[in-house]
Each structure stands twice: as C-alpha cells, then as structure tokens.
UniProtKB/TrEMBL annotation:
Species annotation: Citricoccus zhacaiensis
UniProt-recorded name of the protein: Pyridoxal 5'-phosphate synthase subunit PdxT
Family of this protein: Belongs to the glutaminase PdxT/SNO family.
Underlying gene: pdxT
Entries under CDD domains matching the protein: GATase1_PB (cd01749)
Keywords recorded for this protein, A-Z: Glutamine amidotransferase, Hydrolase, Lyase, Pyridoxal phosphate
Catalytic residues of the enzyme: 79 (nucleophile), 186 (charge relay system), 188 (charge relay system)
Domain of life assignment: Bacteria
Binding site for L-glutamine: 47-49, 108, 137-138
SUPFAM superfamilies: Class I glutamine amidotransferase-like
Listed InterPro entries: Class_I_gatase-like, PdxT/SNO, PdxT/SNO_CS
Subunit record text: In the presence of PdxS, forms a dodecamer of heterodimers. Only shows activity in the heterodimer.
C-alpha cells in the first residue's frame, strides 16, 4: 500500500489513522519536516486550524508541507484540514496562516458553532454511487473556488449562518484541484470511507 502521512500535531488524528490502515495504507504520523519526506500522500485532520498553524510553524514543519504541496504531493484535508489547504481564509484568527495550494477562499465556522453542527447525506457521484454520510462540526464553507477547482459536492445556501445571496448558488463542501482534495465535513468519524478510498485510489496515483 501507499505510505500516507497523517498530520499529527492536533486534531482527530487517530480516526484517520484507523480508516487509512483499514484500507491497506501504511500510515506515518507527521510532526516534523523529516516526517514529510518520502510520503505518497498526506491527510490533514479536523481540529482547530489556528492551533495547527501555530504549532506547525513553531516546529518547522509548515515550510516542509508547503514545499511538498508545491511539488505535487497528494493531500486530503478534512474541515480544519480544508482550511489549512485554502489559499485564502476570509476570517482568520489574528495572523493565522494556511499552507495554501488549493485555490479557494474559506470562511471558518460558516455553518455556526458547535450546537449548529449537522449531519446530512450528500450526492457525490465522482466519489460514490451511494449518498455519502457527512458530519459538519464548526465547519468551513467555500466562498470562492478558482477556475481549476472541481466542486464534488455542495449544500444549500440555507445551511449557512450568515446571509448569502441566493444567486450565489449552493455552497461547495467537497472540492478537488489536481492532487488536493478537501471536505468541509469529517468522513473519518462516520464509518463512510468513500472519500478515503477515493483519495487512495484516484488522487494518489
Ligand atoms: N472551526 C475549526 C477551525 O477553524 C474547524 C472545525 C473542525 O475541524 N471540525 O479550524
């Protein structure tokens, strides 16, 4: 199987490790720049993006991940991981940076706080023949997606906490740009492994 790193400074690392291992990948926790070398792919978990950002810069792993993304490393980011991949964060916590690479603008906590978390079944024909069970927890929304970004799934505008013109259309919650995959939601906590399988089989090649 592929050697897949799980970014392991903060967040729901164990859940991703469990799913990837069950799907036959070899998994390496990534905490330092050295851990990034030789990976076939990397997963960035859900958690708190501002904390991931701070720790990753403190520990010197941020620049290694940025470099690897530039060189085409396949990366899958869930929730906070999506925020870390976004080129632009609309509402960063003071000085918050992302790794970037994925040409999207995200809004953190766009669907409301912890109590507004929700679950839904998403049609994602590119990824699964069956609806994908998606859990949103203080999830980010994609406000803008660049021309090279493929939208894999969206939810109705009415899910958003803040007003958004209806003509802006549904809100993307799963996107793909070449080797970068990101979801606003957490497949690692649902038992629905279709996104991990898609990442291993179609994004890592
Ligand atoms: N709101 C969190 C952040 O800004 C993301 C929440 C999550 O990963 N479940 O990073």
């Amino acid at each position: 199987g592929s050697l897949v790193g799980v970014f392991a400074l903060q967040g729901d690392v164990a859940e991703h490790v469990r799913v990837l291992t069950a799907l036959g990948a070899r998994v390496r926790p990534v905490r330092s720049a050295a851990d990034v070398a030789g990976l076939d792919g990397l997963v960035i978990p859900g958690g708190e993006s501002s904390v991931m950002d701070k720790l990753s810069r403190l520990l010197g792993v941020a620049s290694a991940v940025r470099q690897a993304i530039r060189e085409g490393l396949p990366v899958y980011g869930t929730c906070a991981g999506m925020i870390m991949l976004a080129e632009t964060i609309a509402n960063p916590i003071a000085g918050q940076q992302s790794f970037g690479g994925l040409d999207i603008t995200v809004q953190r906590n766009a669907f409301g706080g912890q109590v507004e978390s929700f679950e839904t079944a998403l049609e994602v024909p590119e990824v699964s023949g069956d609806p994908v069970h998606a859990v949103f927890i203080r999830a980010p929304a994609v406000l803008r997606a660049g021309p090279d970004v493929q939208v894999l799934a969206s939810v109705p505008t009415s899910r958003l906490e803040s007003e958004r013109p209806a003509e802006a259309g549904p809100v993307p919650v799963a996107v793909l740009q070449e080797s970068l995959l990101a979801t606003s939601f957490h497949p690692e906590v649902t038992g629905d492994w279709s996104f991990h399988r898609y990442f291993l089989e179609h994004v890592i090649r």
